[in-house]
Specification:
five-stranded mixed sheet, 1 helix, five-stranded antiparallel sheet, 10 strands
Length: 155
């Protein structure tokens, strides 16, 4: 499955473009997957298991719940220079993740090596917001729009 095709005709970024975006497709099991700091493997996903239908983070990973217990999903992971505009679908929540390597990747329970990596313009703590669009038919994947931006400096 080409993940970009799953988002064809969506108009994901109609008014403003992200700094960068990557598309991914992966098999999920146990009704969850994770956005992880670094290139994926080795992140602590155990303490970031999503609760119900909401994302849950622990600083180095963000757990994302799925509707189906197992199946293929498509995702677009984008980074923004300012707070991202709202996506389409059901908002699953907001969390934070810290990337010291400027890399973020999606992983499943098995860890998933290798996977596409989103390279961030800056290291540090980032805000993460996730939207889900349910599958349109049995043959379509669930789609996830994951938007990331640098947290504002704290005083």
């Amino acid at each position: 499955m080409d993940p970009e095709n799953a988002f064809a005709g969506e108009g994901l970024f109609p008014d403003v473009q992200p700094w960068d975006a990557v598309y991914d497709a992966l098999w999920v099991s146990h009704s969850e997957f994770w956005l992880a700091a670094g290139d994926g493997p080795g992140a602590d996903i155990v303490t970031a298991i999503p609760e119900g239908d909401s994302v849950r983070g622990n600083g180095e990973a963000v757990g994302i719940p799925t509707l189906g217990s197992t199946g293929r999903i498509a995702a677009v992971l984008s980074v923004w220079e300012a707070p991202a505009p709202d996506g389409q679908g059901t908002l699953l929540g907001t969390s934070r993740i810290t990337s010291l390597t400027r890399e973020l990747a999606l992983v499943n329970v098995e860890g998933r090596e290798p996977s596409p990596v989103l390279v961030l313009p800056d290291e540090g703590e980032h805000e993460v917001r996730v939207w889900r669009r349910a599958a349109g038919s049995v043959d379509d994947p669930e789609c996830y729009d994951i938007r990331v931006w640098l947290c504002p400096a704290r005083e």
